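Loading example: each entry is read as six labelled lines plus one structure line.
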Amino acid sequence: MKSSPSATRAPIEYADASEEVRAVYDDIMATRKIDWVNNYWKVLAHHPPTLRRMWANSKEVMGPGALDALTKELIYIAVSVTNGCRYCIASHSAAARNKGLTPEQFSELVAIIGLANETNRHAVALDLNIDELFR
Amino acid sequence: MKSSPSATRAPIEYADASEEVRAVYDDIMATRKIDWVNNYWKVLAHHPPTLRRMWANSKEVMGPGALDALTKELIYIAVSVTNGCRYCIASHSAAARNKGLTPEQFSELVAIIGLANETNRHAVALDLNIDELFR
Amino acid sequence: MKSSPSATRAPIEYADASEEVRAVYDDIMATRKIDWVNNYWKVLAHHPPTLRRMWANSKEVMGPGALDALTKELIYIAVSVTNGCRYCIASHSAAARNKGLTPEQFSELVAIIGLANETNRHAVALDLNIDELFR
Amino acid sequence: MKSSPSATRAPIEYADASEEVRAVYDDIMATRKIDWVNNYWKVLAHHPPTLRRMWANSKEVMGPGALDALTKELIYIAVSVTNGCRYCIASHSAAARNKGLTPEQFSELVAIIGLANETNRHAVALDLNIDELFR
Amino acid sequence: MKSSPSATRAPIEYADASEEVRAVYDDIMATRKIDWVNNYWKVLAHHPPTLRRMWANSKEVMGPGALDALTKELIYIAVSVTNGCRYCIASHSAAARNKGLTPEQFSELVAIIGLANETNRHAVALDLNIDELFR
Amino acid sequence: MKSSPSATRAPIEYADASEEVRAVYDDIMATRKIDWVNNYWKVLAHHPPTLRRMWANSKEVMGPGALDALTKELIYIAVSVTNGCRYCIASHSAAARNKGLTPEQFSELVAIIGLANETNRHAVALDLNIDELFR
């Protein structure tokens, strides 16, 4: 069994990117006020429609709204930890720290994620009926 | 195959509870400033050490701290949705609403949970390397 | 959008089953020393090769071995709770009770499942290195 | 705490394998028309009944049928990504490429997996009722 | 604890929908060549930006491309089963049947999903190294 | 985007630990009759209330009870494999081996975990009704 084409996709750097891809990279950096693009986007760039689509989604969902920017990152991390996605935990923890997450808040976040995972399984194991007042 | 003892555990109501269990119920109601106890605790009550232990955990983790009470509930919901726990979604959504969650915020919460689940899988599928700046 | 053929598969009862399917049902009942077959097998019966294959797997994996029959059921339940499979929790909890599971043991099982789910997420959130002595 | 016996199981190479194990390896190579065996089987080989059983399962389920060979691999990858199994993603992506998966198809596969994971959580978060026409 | 506002979101019917929402509903029906809209969209409609965004995503990802329409549905179902999303399984199984899924193909789909979930856990339990030829 | 403070938490060694943290470490070592503390606790130590709380939980749940010590570890491993937590699999597999787990038993454990994950998905895919005798 010969593995071809190559199994992994190398990140596409700005210098090597098409106009279409560069336009997205530029918008990512401008929106985030940073001067680099992380691997998620640089690997998605192998399929420009997905790169464009996901950036549009991310910009809309994670942009200014009714929830503040740090809270949005905490929700993202809670999902990423529960799914066991190391990349996403690393990238969104960095984002959260840059938005002001303190070590104490991070410790509480981890504790809540753990507790919720525990009680989720209790509720399922015990096949709990939903209380009338919660409906 | 005869299923015995009975497969499900009926909630233990206050009137039928032991002193030990009532003490926990009383503390739950006093802490939450409400006059009822939800099914999670009333079913855990079949095993008083677990009831006591889990209430102590919940009180400590979800009590006042570096994260505000509503943010804590949003983290809880994000985990519960990702795990597919209907009971926990219902109970913590009710708690969040009582702590001020607006419909607009709820909509954003659901959108973020969805997006994070999507990008988590992208990151895994593409076997992304963690960027140096995230380490 | 018309949903056809019918969306769900009705259990195939013994009276309506082919010879091939009846042979599996007979072996299930003989092996388990019971006089009925549960829905899992009766729905799998729509695809006899899968019915036959899964019963052979189940018989081999859950049959006598180095782990006792009750322990095997507890492992099964732990997985089923973590995956949130209500059917499997119900069926294997019944099996466990018939193999002697006590209410106290069930309570401990639920507590361990919950704790493991909690610490699993802690370990991932904190990106722990595996200790040398565990390798 | 001394970790013994050794924590990990080294792959059992053909030269070191028993007759029973070699017979399975031979069938794997003949069926797949390749001249090597991947680690999954070489580690399962520590327990020959499981090696034999899993190969029989794999051969039956992934062999010729009503779905074509490439489609079967895409389904396998979709599950493996959702479960976060790096080994299985790598092995079945290689298999898919050898069965003709194009880079464009791979990109679409990843996009669908992501979208499904997203909408799955939306459906759970919103506790959707199943439409009559879907039943 | 009073649960307000109401815990669940009723589907928004066409007759009660805003112009913005109706435009999406119209496009869903036109694209799918059907005369109704399923609950997923009717509940998302409580937050029109999410309705619009998710429909645009769905239309792009599930529309014509390098993978055929039925294969796309099978991938969707594989994810939905692995995540335990009943709504998504029901809706995409209906879609798959309308795109020609046969009962035999459905049985094979279920078998592959099951097998992949099984071997995913084996690979993780045994901490397999990825073979060089898969890299 | 500058990642600060540092992204990962180094284990806190005994020599560098506060009195409060040392007291927990001492109890861990005394309870387990070993002379070292594993990384889970040494990283949790950055937040002493969580360290204290989790150790109390672990000691109570995993301590002597109605289930024997080895069975408790097998349940823990079953959850950890299903969640894909490499650290927890390594640490609890080591614990299980020290409590007498044989290679044969480990192989059976892995086989049961795999089978349960497979049938869990079958049950969900087929939307099985729970048999009356299981209720």
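The first helix of chain D runs from residue 19 to 32.
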